[in-house]
């Protein structure tokens, strides 16, 4: 039986661990060829490739600092040379450099905005060229609840993720006539290798008390929604902000 995404090519940024890895593995399991973008962790990225290929999937490494326009251009050139196109783009890569606004360094503001927002802009711009040629595409951005409600000590991160929501809606309006959708997901509290021990036990209890579903999310919760948004079943869904947060907002 043909898999749902057989023949499709996807690029997931920040795909060497956590949410990005889960999204990449999910798309590969559905038949998608996946380009695994990462910036520095060669060992972790190689493990993702190995996991996908061991399960019969097809994957390639796409090492690149997505805030660097020249590097992004070269990355897309490599992907297109191997697989001819990019059908599905998931802008997942993001960093945090938290501090109260009055103590925040200019460099920390710039680094977060460049990776989280400029990176999505650059990758989307290059991806749209092949999507428009094929009259089909899916742009899916990973924002955050911080982009909706803001977080104290995260003015830079909140600004970048809020900007990503507006960016998503603008892209949807520009390319909708070419059968390309653009949507954004706002994860809530998702347990990953990076966040699992980030909160003391008392803080975790307080957070759980605010979540109607009474559990933290998992990377698979995000990946499953990405798979739907990338599918033909979501062909009439665009410019939407989807919060996957257990009902916390």
Q: Number of helix segments?
A: 8
Helix content: 40-55%
Query: Structural class, please?
Result: alpha/beta
Main-sheet strand order equals 3-2-1-4-5-6-7
CA radius of gyration: 17 Å
Order of helices and strands: EHEHEHEHEHHEHHE
How many domains? The number is 1
Largest sheet: 7 strands, parallel
Q: What is the mean pLDDT?
A: 96
Give a written overview of the molecule.
With 249 residues, the chain is an alpha/beta fold. It has eight helices and seven strands; from the N terminus they run βαβαβαβαβααβααβ. It has helices spanning 18-29, 42-54, 69-83, 106-134, 146-149, 155-175, 201-210, 219-230, and strands at 9-12, 33-38, 58-63, 88-91, 137-142, 180-187, 241-244. It has a seven-stranded parallel sheet with strand order 3-2-1-4-5-6-7, sandwiched between helices. α2 links the parallel β2 (33-38) and β3. The longest helix is centred in the middle third of the chain and has 29 residues, at 106-134.
Short description, anyone?
This protein has eight helices and seven strands; from the N terminus they run βαβαβαβαβααβααβ. It is of the alpha/beta class.
């Amino acid at each position: 039986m043909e898999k749902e995404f057989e023949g499709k090519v996807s690029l997931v940024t920040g795909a060497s661990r956590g949410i990005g890895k889960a999204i990449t593995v999910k798309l590969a399991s559905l038949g998608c060829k996946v380009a695994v973008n990462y910036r520095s962790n060669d060992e972790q990225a190689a493990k993702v490739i190995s996991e996908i290929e061991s399960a019969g999937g097809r994957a390639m490494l796409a090492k690149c600092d997505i805030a660097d326009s020249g590097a992004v251009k070269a990355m897309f050139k490599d992907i297109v040379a191997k697989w001819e196109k990019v059908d599905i783009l998931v802008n997942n890569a993001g960093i945090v450099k938290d501090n109260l606004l009055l103590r925040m360094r200019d460099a920390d503001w710039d680094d977060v905005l460049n990776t989280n927002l400029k990176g999505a802009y650059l990758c989307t711009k290059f991806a749209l060229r092949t999507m428009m040629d094929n009259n089909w595409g899916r742009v899916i951005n990973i924002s955050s609840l911080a982009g909706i409600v803001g977080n104290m000590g995260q003015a830079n991160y909140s600004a970048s993720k809020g900007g990503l929501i507006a960016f998503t809606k603008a892209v949807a309006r520009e390319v909708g006539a070419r059968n390309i959708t653009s949507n954004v997901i706002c994860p809530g509290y998702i347990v990953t290798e990076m966040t699992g021990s980030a909160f003391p036990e008392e803080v975790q209890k307080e957070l759980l008390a605010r979540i109607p579903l009474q559990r933290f999310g998992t990377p698979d919760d995000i990946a499953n929604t990405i798979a739907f948004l990338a599918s033909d079943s979501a062909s009439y869904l665009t410019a939407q902000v989807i919060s996957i947060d257990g009902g916390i907002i």
